[in-house]
Amino acid sequence: MNNNRHNRKQVNYKLALFQFRESRYYPFFFHGSIIISCLLLIYFVIIPLTENLFAMNKSVDQEHQRINILNQNITYLSSLSDSDTDQNVQLANALFPKSKDFNDAIQAINSAAASASATIGNLTFTIGGVKGNTKSTNQTDEMDMTLLLQGTTDSFVDFLQALDSRVPLMNVENFNLNQGTATVQIHVAYQPYVEKKIDLEQTLLAPPESSFSLLQNAAYWKSQSVMNLEVASSSASSNLPPF
């Protein structure tokens, strides 16, 4: 009895399937199933694979570019001379001191006065003048100096010209002349050191030629300052009375 029911169900299923296959809706169902399967395959398989492929290619290109930049930076850094770099750093610090240090400024003023045959009568300093938080900015600050200078008009002109070729960089803000005595107000520029981290994944650019020209001038100015001071010291020593 149970076998007959089972056989009857199978016959009915096969008959229904045969009728469906012979109906006019079967081609639509068959082709529609194929189309839907293809769309699902494209959406869930092909498109993600394609996106992953493009992402991998982009990542590979970025890695190649990063490696090329690193190689260029390594080549550039390897071409630098340690001694020349240290010398340029010292000259840059001579142009713009890292702190408010009056010693180099006094040495430059004495050198300019010695080359101009002028005499420094009095020298005063203005303490302060720090603007803002210099530890986190690149601004250049100034320290003020006021000096009394004795000499002739020509020596004053020579002093001002000599001061332009001395380090650190100084700027004459005020100049008053009164019967052989000149009052000169000078601003000395200085720039606190700001630590910067070098990103080796960015292309390192060589400084412009104008920077090296300025450093060469600084080297000459510094040598002139030392030479004039030595000449002035030797002249002063020779003029001392014998004991």
Walk me through this protein's architecture:
By secondary structure, the chain is an alpha+beta fold. The chain folds into two domains: 31-76; 84-194 and 207-236, Alpha-Beta Plaits (2-Layer Sandwich). It contains six helices and four strands, in the order ααααββαββα.
What is the gist of this entry?
By secondary structure, this protein is an alpha+beta fold.
Low-pLDDT runs of 5+ residues are 129-137, 231-243
What is the CA-CA span between the terminal residues?
149 Å
Biggest sheet details: 4 strands, antiparallel
User: For the record, what CATH class of the largest domain applies?
Assistant: Alpha Beta
Order of adjacent strands in the largest pleated sheet: 1-2-4-3
Number of strands: 4
Q: Give the count of helical stretches.
A: 6
Name given to the CATH architecture of the largest domain: 2-Layer Sandwich
Secondary-structure element pattern, one letter each: HHHHEEHEEH
The portion of residues forming beta strands comes to 15-25%
How many domains make up the 3D coordinates?
Answer: 2
Overall average pLDDT: 76
Shape: rod-shaped
Radius of gyration (CA) equals 42 Å
The percent of residues in helical segments reads 55-70%
